[in-house]
Design brief:
Elements (H helix, E strand, L loop, with lengths): L14 H6 L6 H11 L3 E7 L6 E9 L5 E9 L1 H4 L5 H12 L9 E5 L9 E5 L12 H16 L27 H12 L7 E4 L8 E4 L2 E5 L6 E4 H15 L2 H15 L7 H7 L11 H11 L3
Antiparallel strand pairs: 1-2, 2-3, 3-5, 4-5, 6-9, 7-8
Helix pairs in contact: 5-8, 6-10, 7-8, 7-9, 9-10
Length: 304
């Protein structure tokens, strides 16, 4: 079997090189995929939207008896893994844990975690039906189902191989120069530098937000993107989702989601720590204002 050559793509590359991540996977990778899953031909390859940490493709496999199997092929970026080398192995392990759970998550089908054959750490998982929906017809029902999915995730049994949760650090000096609420950002940094609230530790998705939830006929059909799953406070997933909702919609929508989650989870208290420490790594450009993020931070700091 031939070996695919590593492709060192990452965050600081030109758009043309980023497009390479959406190109057809090398023949060696596709041949490895056929061998791993006992298929005979590649019927179709579709590049999926994603970031710069991995190349993600939907691959339709065919067999001699005419059956078709759609799978998801994720190949990790090598220079990105220099910072988080544990990620491919963590994703494979987490998908294994989820296989015995009621969570609508992909199932692990194959893995080349050191990239010995495929040229880069690679994880193959089952394809899930559905689509991402940021414009729901019934916002309240949509929020309720987002909230209802979390207790099922948080009930997944954990083991000693999972990493512990820690907020991502700021990427730029804080407060941002454009902020109208610099004191709120300073409080966020103070909380980040201090201890986490003492709450029960559970299984976390770690990147739970509407962009990682698939929908079919107004129901959640799948929850994807599990590489960062870890052990921590359920509120960490809630805070991350709230921040995404606040930026995409507004604070009221984020608060409605929180209230729904508190109802379905039976959780009375929610500390602003989880909102504030989630977003301090989100600041992006120091010259382009982010009013929604600024308002989210100010509101959270106001509840301290």
């Amino acid at each position: 079997m031939s070996f695919a050559q590593p492709t060192p793509h990452g965050y600081e590359l030109e758009p043309e090189l980023h497009r390479t991540l959406r190109g057809r996977p090398p023949a060696a990778v596709l041949n490895w995929l056929l061998d791993q899953l006992g298929a005979t031909k590649i019927v179709e390859v579709e590049a999926l939207p994603g970031g710069t940490s991995s190349a993600v493709h939907k691959v339709l496999l065919g067999s001699r008896n005419g059956t078709m199997l759609p799978v998801i092929l994720r190949r990790y970026v090598l220079d990105w893994l220099a910072e988080e080398p544990w990620t491919p192995g963590n994703e494979a392990h987490v998908l294994g844990l989820l296989a015995d759970s009621p969570v609508a998550a992909p199932r692990l089908l194959a893995a080349d975690l050191d990239g010995a054959v495929s040229g880069a750490p690679t994880v193959v998982m089952s394809w899930l039906p559905g689509r991402v929906d940021w414009r729901p017809r019934d916002l309240e029902s949509w929020l309720r189902r987002l909230a209802e999915a979390l207790p099922t995730i948080h009930a997944v049994p954990v083991d000693g191989r999972l990493r512990g949760f820690a907020p991502y650090p700021p990427e730029r000096p804080l407060p941002p120069s454009w902020s109208r609420h610099p004191d709120a950002w300073r409080r966020a940094v103070e909380l980040f530098e201090g201890p986490q609230p003492d709450v029960p530790q559970v299984f976390l998705h770690r990147d739970y937000h509407p962009g990682n939830v698939l929908w079919s006929q107004d129901h959640v059909s799948g929850i994807v993107d599990w590489p960062s799953a870890c052990v921590g406070a359920a509120e960490a997933d809630v805070g991350h989702c709230r921040a995404n909702l606040a930026r995409q919609f507004d604070l009221d929508v984020a608060d409605r989601f929180l209230g729904l989650w508190q109802t379905v989870s039976g959780t009375a208290d929610y500390h602003p720590y989880w909102d504030l420490t989630d977003v301090i790594s989100w600041t992006g450009s120091d010259v382009e204002p982010d009013p929604a993020l600024d308002a989210f931070v100010a509101a959270a700091a106001g509840r301290l």
